[in-house]
Amino acid sequence: MVTGSAGFIGRALVETLLSSGEKVVGIDRVAQPPRPGLTVLTADLLAGDELVRAALRDADVVYHLAGCPGVRDRGHDVARRRRRDNVRAGAHVLAVVPPHVPLLVVSSSSVYGGARGGRPSHEADPLRPVGGYARSKAVLERLCAERLARGGRTTVVRPFTVAGEGQRPDMALSLWLEATRRGRPLRVLGSLDRTRDVTDVRQAARAMADLAAAGAQGIVNIGTGRGQTLRAMAAAVAEALDTEVSFTVEPAPGVEPGASLADVRRLRSLIGWSPETDLPALVRRQAAHPPAETPWPDPPRPSAQTVPRSGGRLRRAHEH
Q1: Percentage of the chain exceeding pLDDT 90
Q2: DSSP calls for 152-176
Q3: Which of 57, 145, 202, 303 has a Cα-to-Cα distance from 221 of 20 to 30 A?
Q4: Domains defined for the chain, CATH in brackets
Q5: Are 52 and 65 in contact (CB under 8 A)?
Q6: pTM of this prediction exceeds 0.70
Q7: How far apart are CA 103 and CA 59, in angstroms?
Q8: Average pLDDT of the chain to the nearest whole number
Q9: Which of 4-18, 232-246, 287-301 shows the lowest per-residue confidence on average (mean pLDDT)?
Q10: β-pairing, 186-189 with 245-250?
């Protein structure tokens, strides 16, 4: 079973499980098209649906991906939605799934508050959640730790920046691809030298399936262990769309870590491999996917720099 099966990572995980011959029950508030091997339940986890409860009780493995995403979401009711969808819904799943059933819960690398001194974030590091999204995931992790302490089979995964086809429209690469298509500058927060551990969504999904198959318990990072600069990500966008891209640099809000980097030694020890990202190929694949429809904000100020479509050098343009 997969909760949040219509979401970005959820869809990739469902595809991974189906391609390996698994029968999947997918639960999401968003309707999904039927397909061989997939049973769809269109429901809210907190709506008291007895079919949902029965599916959670009877599953062989439960992957809990449903939640309220978005580090930068500033909607007027975002705190309520995070509490409801990340904490209360997670608590409901933890309570309903029997202790003997393997339960894999997706948290976030945001609970680390970024890499420390350039060192990869390790699962044993003290958490430094900054912002409401990260704090809600930290609360969810505490609930998972309580289930694990009671003998419930529980795995918590912390994915680092996940990209690929179907990426949410509020994430950087999606925003940058759409801005480039519209001939607008890329909005860069902080500096082009900031780094992200960019992980292919297909490999992230495969890692989750492999962790469940291996009977992993406790907390596991899912990432590559290699940082990609925002500069390299911008160059990959330029190459994917065969054009030059310009950008504006704005101060990064406090919820934005300067760098993210996964320590993947535990992941490798458990499943025998860790993701590797070919950034240009990944961005080309994402660019080929139909862009999501999303309201477009007011355009930023004129750009200060330009990235050539070759993906190579940056050249300084005019400043304002």
Answers
A1: 80
A2: --EEEEEE-SEESTT--TTSHHHHH
A3: 57
A4: 2-166+200-226+263-278 (3.40.50.720)
A5: no
A6: yes
A7: 10
A8: 90
A9: 287-301
A10: parallel
